[in-house]
């Protein structure tokens, strides 16, 4: 299995809920640009008059961070990432957050780390997981 880490860049904003600086991944910037691509040609989505394709990464990071920060009270689900190590008490939480502003997607996916909160992707679909049924221990296992 191959894992690819997307590049993260700082924004000038902090998350109101965690008070951590917000970092934005290349994946999120790419998705923002794709959602709004082709507006001048009459193609793509028509959600904004802003041309994200020609905008600098720094400017786009701040727009994305502003959208994310506005959604501070919309956390829908959290779980520990595979990178967490409970023995060393290193915990990285994955947070799924609803989008508060009008955008063509519904959720942000972020990783809460010790020194930042990293927006790793956006999506139009997310289904709440069903409750996990844990096996009942038999008397012999106890």
- What is the element string, with H for helices and E for strands? EEHHEEEE
Tell me the Rg in angstroms: 18 Å
Low-confidence stretches: 138-142
Please give the domain count: 1
The strand line-up of the biggest sheet is 1-2-6-5-4-3
The share of residues in extended strands comes to 25-35%
Q: What is the tally of helical segments?
A: 2
Helix content: 10-25%
Count of strand segments: 6
Helix-strand category: alpha+beta
Give the biggest sheet.
Answer: 6 strands, mixed
Overall outline = globular
Mean pLDDT: 81
What distance separates the N and C termini? 36 Å
Describe this structure in words.
This protein has 142 residues and is an alpha+beta fold. It has one domain (9-123). It contains two helices and six strands, in the order E-E-H-H-E-E-E-E. The chain has helices at 26-35, 57-70; strands at 8-14, 21-25, 75-80, 93-98, 107-112, 117-123. A six-stranded mixed beta sheet has the order 1-2-6-5-4-3. Strand 1 (8-14) and strand 2 form a beta hairpin. The longest helix has 14 residues, at 57-70. The chain is globular. The N and C termini lie far apart (36 Å).
């Amino acid at each position: 299995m191959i894992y690819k880490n997307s590049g993260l860049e700082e924004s000038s904003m902090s998350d109101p809920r965690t008070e951590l600086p917000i970092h934005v991944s290349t994946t999120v910037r790419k998705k923002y640009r794709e959602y709004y691509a082709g507006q001048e040609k009459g193609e793509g989505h028509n959600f904004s008059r802003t041309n994200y394709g020609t905008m600098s990464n720094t400017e786009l990071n701040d727009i994305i961070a502003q959208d994310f920060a506005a959604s501070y009270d919309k956390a829908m689900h959290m779980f520990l990432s595979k990178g967490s190590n409970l023995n060393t008490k290193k915990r990285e939480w994955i947070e799924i957050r609803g989008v508060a502003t009008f955008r063509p997607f519904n959720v942000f996916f972020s990783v809460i780390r010790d020194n930042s909160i990293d927006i790793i992707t956006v999506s139009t679909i997310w289904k709440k997981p069903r409750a996990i049924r844990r096996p009942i221990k038999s008397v012999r296992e106890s």
